[in-house]
Structures are given as C-alpha cells and as structure tokens.
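Pasting as-is:
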Amino acid sequence: MEFYHKPVLFDETIESLKIQPDGIYIDGTAGGGGHSLAIAKRLTTGKLLAIDQDPDAIRAAGDRLKEYPCATVYRTNFSEMDKAAEKFGLLPVDGVLLDIGVSSFQLDNPERGFSYHTDAPLDMRMSREGVSARDLVNTLSARELEEILRRYGEESNARRIAVRIVRAREKAPIETTLQLAEIVKESVPAAVRRKPGHPARKTFQALRIKVNGELDRLSEGLDAAFSVLRPGGRLVVITFHSLEDRIVKKRMADWCTGCICPPDFPVCICGRKPKAELIYKKGLVPTKKEMEENPRCHSARLRACKKLKETEGAD
C-alpha cells in the first residue's frame, strides 16, 4: 500500500513558514512527504531535514524527495529533532513544521491496527517498535485502563469499558481491532450507540496516544523545535484533537508572555521578556470546502509563532 497522507491546511501551512530559498527547515513529521516536497521545491541553496519515526513514512518520503539534493531524510521521533539537526550540521533553522497525529496511510492500512473499521492485529505502534495496544488491553488492570481512557480519550464511559475489557480477556486474549471495537460497543449505553460516529473512537484514540507516548513526545518536540530556531524563525504546528491543541496553545502562550509581576508593582522586577510572538491569535481551522472534501480534518487547528530576537522582547 502506497504511503499517502493528504495534508490538512496545506496552503496555510506553507504560507505560515514564510520559506526563504536559502533557509534551513525541518519537517518533523514527514509522513508521505507532501509538506516536505512543497518545502524542497521552494529552496535553492537552502536545506531541508525531513524526519519521521515510521519506517514506512521514511521510505515514502525518501522516494518523493530523491530528486532534491537539498533534502535529507532521517528516521527519528520529532522530539529528537535538535539532536538530528546537530548531527547533520543544520543549526540554527528558519522554520519547523509539526503535523501531529496519525496519518491517512496509518489509518487506512489495516495491518497497522489503528482503525476500528477493519479487522487487523491490535497494534497502533507508529514506530513499529515497543509495547502495542494488544499488550495494554491484555495486561493492564481495569483501573489502569480506565485512567488511560479518561486521560487520553476523555471517555465518559471509561470505567464500564475497562471492566468489560478485563472480563472479555479472561475468556481469551483480545487480539484484533474489531474484537476490541465490539467490546467497547457492548460496554456503552444504548443512547451512546445511537449517536453519530463509532462508540470505540475515543477508546482507540486513547490507546494510540498511550502506546506512542504522543503527548509527552509533543511537549518534548515543542521545546526541541523552539530551541533550534534562529531569531525570526517560525514554528508551525497542526493538531487534530483538543488534548494536543491545549499543549501547543499553552506552550506558545508561555513563550509569548513577558513580565509576570503583580499589576500593582510600579516597575518590573522579574525581568521576564517574551521569547516569541503569535502569528495567529486564535489559530487557523480548515475551510468548509476542505472539511467537505476531507472529513478527517474537521478538528484540525494550525498554530504558529515567531521566535523573537532578545532585543525585541525588551521594554
């Protein structure tokens, strides 16, 4: 199956990076190489580092970028981009792009075990390494499973689902995606089953996030990205659910915050200066047309900020 991922907010993303022909850029989530290719086409003497943790993505991006000597494709998690950029002598950089979440290829490829629509081994590992979703549902206690579903899926029926999972595995191990999806469906109230969308959506999201450590890697990746930017460089991040967006919004707001002294202080004594400025106050969302063409993008949000020079943050 060809690795294909239709980039969301594509034009807005490329515009937000303000690509310079001689600039240095990192695509921290190369996927099928769509964004990377668009960046590479705009470079002359510049450089691009395209990274991804998924070996299938690396092969696809490598094929797509093979005619562009400006591009280096490297397998690692985006939380390690600072080390990767140093390895290839690409510091500092003019822009970093992060397109967070699961790709269309990963969702649509049954053998990856991300989807509750087709039967496949219960996997969900983006890197194809480490603990799988099957391992979690067959070994964790009901309390541990409940915590994962509440924290990462914001699932209101977490307790019922966790208990049913533990009961089901007492008879036989839970091996496939459809097995788990059916267990979840049987666990929730009838009113939930009648709502639009599959009742297992939040459970699968929660397990995927836990398996891949997505929120921790996102937090680490944001810091790594900001650390490699030169003054004036831009960080552009696309998220697909509220948990991710909350982290990005809070981190960018923190970078953009200056003095934190109480308002009744006559002068600033904290000495804190903003490190960045927001490019979009509330972020960008897909157009109605894009959502009609690609239903998976309905929850996407693009946020971007520019790193300031030290003097820019001064009073």
